[in-house]
Write a structure and sequence with these properties.
This protein is mainly alpha-helical and about 100 residues long. Helices cover about 55% and strands about 5% of the residues. The chain has four helices and two strands. It has a two-stranded antiparallel sheet. The structure holds iron/sulfur cluster (SF4). The site of iron/sulfur cluster has 13 residues, from loops.
């Protein structure tokens, strides 16, 4: 595996560990559909590599870091989304059905 791929894999695994812990802290769960889950994690990792931050892969960046900081995962919207819709916009975090 080349260095770039190796680095991307490592970042993905860091994000996965962070997301698992963060879900537990909030009494949520991660998407049980592994294909969808992996796609979001891949998107977050790519944004981290390309744009320097874990920007939400499901939202449009403006290019202004002051505005876009709102959509660094976990974005400013996710708690309301999980509460009101049962999951965040990207289908990363879900309430656990309690
Ligand atoms: S919608 Fe979900 S995955 Fe996207 S930034 Fe917000 S919390 Fe993260």
């Amino acid at each position: 595996m080349d260095d770039g791929k190796e680095q991307e894999k490592m970042i993905q695994e860091n994000i996965r560990s962070w997301a698992e812990e963060y879900a537990v802290e909030n009494d949520w769960v991660l998407n049980s559909d592994k294909t969808q889950l992996n796609a979001v994690i891949r998107g977050l990792a790519r944004n981290k590599i390309r744009h320097g931050e874990r920007y939400c892969p499901c939202r449009i960046r403006t290019g202004d870091p002051n505005i876009d900081r709102e959509i660094i995962c976990p974005c400013i919207y996710h708690k309301d989304e999980v509460k009101n819709d049962g999951n965040c916009h990207c289908y990363l975090f879900f309430n656990n059905g309690k």
